[in-house]
Amino acid sequence: MDSVPRYYDSLDFQSLWAQYPTGTDFLQSTYLFSSDEIWSLQNKRFLDQMVRAWQIPFYQRHWAKVGMLAGDIKSLEDLNSIPPFDVSDLRDAIDRSPPWGDFVALDLEKNKPMPLVLQTSGGTTGLPRAMLYSPKDREVMNINTGRRLYMQGVRSFDVIQVMLSLGLSNGGFLVREGIWKYSGAVPVMTGSGAQTSTRRQIEIMQAWKTRHLVGFPAYIRKVGQVMKDELNLDPRSLGIKSLILHLGVDDRASLEKLWGAKVYDTYGTNECGSLSAECEHQTGSHVFEDSFVLEIKDLETGEDALPGEKGVIYQTTLFKHLAPLIRFNSADISAWSPGACACGSHHKRLQRIFGRSDNMIKLRGTNVFPEAVGAILAKQSDVNGEYVCIVEDSGENLEEKMTVKFELLPSADNASLIEQDFALALKESLGVKLLVQSVPVGSLDAVTGLSSQSKIKRLIDLRKTRSVK
Ligand SMILES: [Zn+2]
Q1: pTM over 0.70
Q2: CA distances (Å), 363 to each of 57, 172, 316, 336, 357, in order?
Q3: pLDDT tens per residue across span 345-385
Q4: How remote is the CA of residue 33 from the centroid of ligand 1, in Å?
Q5: In the chain, fewer beta carbons within 10 Å around the N or the C end?
């Protein structure tokens, strides 16, 4: 027996695909389950996931704090009695047990060799948080990427141009694996603007007949604008069918108009891959409920949010071997989409990701998400949508103020009027006054990282004292 672990010996693939059907098999089976069928499948997988989690020091320690015992959790109905955890607990676990943290159940002394892969979160400060994936972890994530692409109109031999950085962060690599293994389409990894210049991205799109774009909305918008303004080329003439992205609160209508293509939203993270995806009806993204249990909790009360009410997403995985998540407070803010979807699936749907609770600024008693500022800016005229929010202390009382710098198109003839209009729209929509300042196109690039990074920075926090949330 070869002592080197072989990826294709490490899993029973036929059995995996029976449990986690792919592509059209998925759309004809799990996707159409009734709510009861979904719950039964989740309950079974959840109890298995709990057995695994009890073997992991991180959970043993976290749950011992509240005196939880293995027999206490008898079904998914008991989920609420499990204490949640957040990113600070993960950081603490890494400090206790470097380099991966004791939430990763890997014992190099005892475990058989296993093919592993490591990627990280796309963190903007400090060392990014690493995550290791076992073959099963990675393969289920790949299957979910493939499902998402099929739901969003990707078909065999379509060329998909992926404009996400290839490096430590999981985004680009994970998309490539899912496209290649489970969609039949062809991934073309142009990466971010730092890896392939915007002009070369456009040349490739034309020459290789790209059918779908994957990337961040701000960059995809920029590419379309460069095409129009600098190359005198109509992005709609390229025949791009869909823009596959994390929409957040970015403006769907203007992107669809610019490219003449459908925009499909998705929710994904480094630890979990794609957790949900919009179907062709664009009514919010359907959670892959055979792989995850998601909860949305009210930020103030911690109670389950009703459909349409915003709250923070708690994630529980149902398939992970190395590092299962049981009630991870993701800090991502969303809401359940009310009503049924015309596609016939009962898998619950997330509205957009409105922002992150740890990026939320409390200004004179009002919660402000930088992302919401971007959504309001997108509706203004004579702007390209680029902005950054700067929050700082001012005056003797160290009162907090936020200034929004935004890029103004050279064709605009009255900057101060546009600033006034924007400030008024912000006040009306957010209920709090922000300062605004227009700057020339391109001048925020170095601050936000638009042309060089996948993860775009929209908030600069210069406060000396952090306000209590
Ligand atoms: Zn649907």
Answers
A1: yes
A2: 40, 36, 32, 26, 14
A3: 999 999 999 988 877 788 877 878 888 898 899 888 899 98
A4: 13
A5: N
Distance between CA atoms of residues 138 and 156, nearest Å? 22
Query: How many angstroms is it from 27 CA to the middle of ligand 1?
Result: 11
Cα–Cα distances (Å) from 111 to 5, 104, 268, 371, 460, in that order, read: 12, 13, 29, 44, 44
3 CA to centre of ligand 1 in angstroms: 46
**CA atoms of 70 and 9, how far apart (whole Å):** 32
Ligand 1 center to 24 CA (angstroms): 14
CA-to-CA distance for 75 and 49, rounded, in angstroms? 11
- How many A from CA of 420 to the centre of ligand 1? 40
Q: How far is the CA of 79 from the centre of ligand 1 (A)?
A: 26
Ligand 1 centre and the CA of 31: distance in Å?
9
Alpha-carbon distance 244 to 277, whole Å? 10
User: Which tens digit of pLDDT belongs to each residue from 8-59?
Assistant: 999 999 999 999 999 999 999 999 999 999 999 999 999 999 999 999 999 9
How many CB atoms are located within 10 Å of the residue 404 CB? 23
Alpha-carbon gap, residue 247 to 193, rounded angstroms: 19
Count of Cβ atoms closer than 10 Å to residue 125 Cβ: 6
Q: Are 236 and 260 within 8 A, CB to CB?
A: yes
CA of 285 to the centre of ligand 1 (A): 8
What digits encode the pLDDT tens for the residues 209-260?
999 999 999 999 999 999 999 999 999 999 999 999 999 988 899 999 999 9
Please tell me the distance between residue 275's alpha carbon and the centre of ligand 1 in angstroms. 15
Q: In 242-351, which ranges are E strands? A: 242-245, 262-269, 273-278, 285-287, 292-297, 311-317, 328-334, 349-350
- Distance from the alpha carbon of residue 282 to the mean position of ligand 1, in angstroms: 7
Distance 131 CA to ligand 1 centre (A): 31
Q: How many whole angstroms separate alpha carbon 119 and alpha carbon 6?
A: 20
Separation of 284 CA from ligand 1 center, angstroms? 8
The CA distance from 46 to 42, in Å, is 6
- CA 262 – ligand 1 centroid, Å: 15
